[in-house]
Amino acid sequence: MTAAGDHTMGSTVRELDPTVAAPSGSDGATAQRRSTAEAQAPEATGSTSRVAAATPPGIPGLDVSAWQENVDWAAVYNQGARFAYVKATEGLTYKSSRFASQYGGAYDVGMIRGAYHFAVPNRSSATAQADYFVANGGGWAGDSRTLPPLLDIEYNPYAASDGTDVCYGLSQGAMVSWIAEFSQRIQSLTGARPAIYTTTDWWTRCTGNNAGFSLNPLFVARYPANLASGAGTLPSGWSAYTMWQYSSTGPFPGDSDVFNGTMAGLQQLALTGVPLTRSVVGNGDLNGDGRPDLVARKPDGTLWFYATDGPKGAGVGFASGTRIGTGWGVFNQIVLTGDLNGDDKDDIVARRSDGTLWLYPGTGASPTTGAGLGKGIQIGSGWSIFTDVIAAGDTDGDGRTDLVARKSDGTLWLYAGTGRAGSGQETFRAGTQIGSGWNAFAQVVGVGDMDGDGRDDLVAKRATGALALYRGQGTSYVGGDALPNAGMSASDLLVAGGDADQDGRVDLFTKTQTGALNFFAGTSVQLDAFGGGQRVGTGWDTFRLVIGAGDVTADGSADVVAIGRDGRLWSYPGKGNGGGTNRGYSAGSVIGSGWEGFQTVAAADLTGDGKSDLIGKRTDGSVWIYPGTGTGSRVSYGAPTRVTGIDGAAIRQLRVAELTGDSRADLLVTLNDGGNVVLPGLQRAAGSTVWFGSSVTVPVLNRGQHTPVSTGDRTGDGRADVLATKPDGSLVAFRGTGSSSGAARVADSPLTVGSGWTTFPVVGGTGDTVAGRGGDVLAVRNDGTLWYYPATGRTGTAKSGLAAYAVVGSGWNVFD
After folding, report:
1. Which residues are catalytic?
2. Beta-bridge mates of residue 788
3. Structurally, how many domains does the chain consist of?
4. CA atoms within 13 A on the CB side of 699
5. Are residues 232 and 378 in the same domain?
6. Among 307, 511, 593, 639, whose Cα sits 20 to 30 Å from the Cα of 247?
7. How distant, in Å, are the alpha carbons of 98, 162, 282, 497, 511 from that of 517?
């Protein structure tokens, strides 16, 4: 490597990447010295005398710089190389003296070639370097012979002299911004997103493993001792590499590379500027036989249809493929959407690299003739802002097919379908943001209703290959439940399977790099009790008690009251249901004082008037009920009534729920000794102050092992359950029996429904905040933030997981 900039792409990798294997028979120090020595004298290029090395599967290629002074391109071609990347520029001051001869030489012998730019982000702006690159050879022609421009972003070779570090002194956020600006500028100048050359180690260190560049072709560097181990873990955001630099020591001059695909796929990359990913899609019934099918695209742009074959319940197979289209190479994504135009036939949506979105309506051809598609209709533009478009099914539950799309910043957007498509008709309503943080995933697919609740769900795959189920909530997704993925590789392409085996559960397929098609049948696993947490406030650590007060104002929204350390009582009226999410609470106001004497307070409708009341125990052992009198947005309580017949001195904590099945509110009491009892609500005579009957022990709530924190219907069976924490931070649910007979008013065996709840010093029920199930939970974290957790109403029921895979096809690597 030279200060003049003649060094090759990846010249820093062998020295600085800790994952690089030392050459056989040497230690890492020797390997580093050897790399340095190699960089001190120009190579005898065109060297076919090197020992031939094994090459990975794919199309061989190389990358060169001015360090390789006289490449014999004919000899390299005869060795098998079919593409080359040639260094053009570095920073704003270096132009390779060998660029023209190398770029032209590769082309003249029939190779596909492209130009690359070595980035020096701390010297000048990304826009300036992109402009300099394009002005000095970094163009793109879209002629099937010119590869997309390439950004070489790797360890800083000048760290010792410029006083920075391997990340050029930039923060991870600044580095991500620099790369994004370079990518956007190159695309605006050439029409193609640049490919990105990097290593997983550098990307993790210097960008924080940012997942926002999945639309840029990935050129990854890794030099394993055993090529069979592959390219290793990829940087986040990419489910597969486009090219892999696997050696800096042969068999070709410069560095030796491989394209991940066929020659036709390489030509297609040079033609369209985008790698043909997500080439197999599923979860649509194109032939109208009631079973989900697969559609796949070959590198030559032909589209193929595969009908699910075999009797129901007898496993999964596919009929022979039928070609149903040509010229589909112009699209960078294809999805099977279901019925988008309202004609009861499933359709295909495809996106061009220019961002236009096209609908190909299904004709519903018979199973014997295969699937047919009508003429393409443009239904949108500007969709290139999304990294991927997801066939999400009927997300909002209105009976029409929707799309979900993901941006590189991680935001998730819903485009609700109108059920119409055609000239002058809007196929989708305006997009609305429904999530964030989704750039943590390498791939997201719509799978249908996986958890059996009647709403369509998403499955997301991390770069590591880990799978998570996100349950549809109408206009949002919650959960992130881990799904088993035994036998699934991080590089596998997820393909939605619908209910391929017709057993009533949603399935998945994967396409492996070796061309195997694997089938993962849906199975039953335990369901979580709560959706993902939503922060709805800050500064709540100033309160001594926070109480989910239920609906005090009778406006349909659950409210919160809180007792300050000075004894003042504050009200926070709920803002209501915000499209399936808790909108939070209005500004607090003081509605009382003198509450410093209360040790524990709970809320429920004790008087039967439809408004939530308060019941509390004072430090003197007396128990009092404050009837809710609020209206509209005003929270208030009437004069208190003292409750008699209760030994308040023995009470540590109060909770209220209808546990006995008689439609009257009962008390769940934790005693000072850690035991738990139920005091059943009574049918009171007029004027009576005896509200509750004799206590009944609940032995399953063990002393010191279970602390009840909330009550409500967690399981969706109409009976109140008890939510409790354990010393290890796990959250368990005891299902209500709804019976007043015997000592146990909850089921003996609890269900574990959460973990890590030791971070919450205050936990309590909210009442029916959003989901219509009455079992939501509020929690105040140690940092004072207030969090809302919606009850799913499905604890103890089943959702679909994935069984061990079965190979149901081979040779699917003919598809790009």
Report:
1. 63, 152, 154
2. 534, 778
3. 3
4. 4
5. no
6. 511
7. 45, 51, 12, 11, 5
Cα dihedral 738/744/746/748 (nearest 10): -140
Domain that holds residue 140: 54-272
CB atoms within 10 A of CB 785: 16
Structure tokens at 143: 């002629």
Identify the domain boundary among 503, 538, 573: 538
The whole model's pTM is what? Answer: 0.47
Q: Does residue 607 lie within any of the structural domains?
A: no
DSSP single-letter state for residue 440: G
The span from the CA of 206 to the CA of 16, in Å, is 13
Same domain, 340 and 455: yes
Six token digits for residue 813: 């690597």
- Measured distance CA(510)–CA(495) in Å, rounded: 6
- 219, 149 Cβ separation under 8 angstroms: no
Beta-carbon contacts of residue 158 (< 8 Å; ≥ 6 apart): 3, 120, 164
Q: Is residue 583 part of a domain?
A: no
Looking only at the bridges linking them, the beta strands covering 507-511 and 798-802 are unpaired
Residues 80 and 210 in one domain: yes
Tens of pLDDT, residues 417-472: 998 887 778 899 999 999 988 877 778 899 888 877 678 899 988 766 788 899 88
The mean-pLDDT minimum among 403-407, 538-542, 733-737 falls in: 733-737
Same domain, 200 and 326: no
- Distance, in Å, from the CA atom of 625 to the CA atom of 644, rounded to the nearest integer, reads 11
Q: Token match 């609700």: residue?
A: 416
Q: Is residue 469 part of a domain?
A: yes
In the DSSP assignment, the letter for residue 625 is: E
